[in-house]
Every structure is written in structure tokens, then in C-alpha cells.
Amino acid sequence: TIKTSNYYLRNITKYFSGEKIDGCLAGRKWILVTPDAKIKRCSEKEPETDVSSYNEHTFKKTTCNLCWFSCRGEAQCPLTIERIRDYI
Predict the structure, then answer these.
(1) What CA–CA distance (Å, rounded) separates 47 from 34?
(2) Are 53 and 42 in contact (CB under 8 A)?
(3) d(C-alpha 22, C-alpha 71), whole Å
(4) pLDDT tens per residue across all 88 residues of the chain
(5) Which residues of 35-55 are buried (b: 16+ CB within 10 A; e: fewer)?
(6) CA angle, corner 42, sides to 35 and 28, nearest 5?
(7) CB contact at 8 A, 68 and 21
(8) How far apart are CA 28 and CA 31, in angstroms?
(9) Sequence-distant (≥ 6) Cβ neighbours of residue 59 within 8 angstroms
(10) CA 27 – CA 16 distance, rounded (Å)
């Protein structure tokens, strides 16, 4: 069984109506390395640097809303008692 969190369901309408959903950690908690050794903060963005010049301070806070629907929405769901019950 796959369950969608109430958090995701509450915010999906905001996303599709164009409202920005803050909190993206792309480039700060994860990065994407391309086959040609370029680094992207997320799959929706263009490469911004290469492996040799990357460090933990390369990317500033991400302010876009491009991937909330496809990858951030459920991953950002707060871990609440309700959500733990959903997993059980």
C-alpha cells in the first residue's frame, strides 16, 4: 500500500495554483553529478559548477518551486505522529 501524506495533499493544490512552497534543500542536502562531472543542485536546473570546484558552500539557498510536485513534496513531509502511524 502506498499512502500520500496529508501534508502533500494540502500543498499540492497550492503548487498547481502557482503558489511557492519554501524549504527546498537542493544543493545543500543533495546534489546531482552529471556524466561529464558537472554539478547541478537539482535535476530541473542547469549545471552550475564542476566537481573540481565544488564545496559545501557552492550553492546558496534554492528559491525556486520547479520540482515540488515530482520530488520535494513527499520528501519534505514533516515527521509527525500521524505520519508515523501511516508508515505502520
Answers:
(1) 8
(2) no
(3) 14
(4) 567 888 888 889 998 998 988 888 888 888 899 999 999 988 888 999 999 999 888 988 888 888 888 778 888 888 888 888 777 7
(5) eeeebbbbeebeeebeeeebe
(6) 110
(7) yes
(8) 7
(9) 26, 27, 28, 31, 41, 48
(10) 24
Asked whether 31 and 62 are in contact (CB, 8 A), the reply is no
Residues in the chain: 88
pLDDT at 51: 93
Around 34, how many Cα atoms within 13 Å sit in the side-chain half-sphere?
15
Return the residue matching grid coordinates 500500500: 1
From the number of C-beta atoms within 10 Å of its C-beta (0-12, 13-18, 19+), residue 31 rates as: middle
Q: What is the CA 84 to chain-centroid distance, rounded?
A: 21
- Mapping DSSP onto H, E and C, the string for 33-69 reads ECCCCEEECCCCCCCCEEHHHCCCCCCCCCCCCCCHH
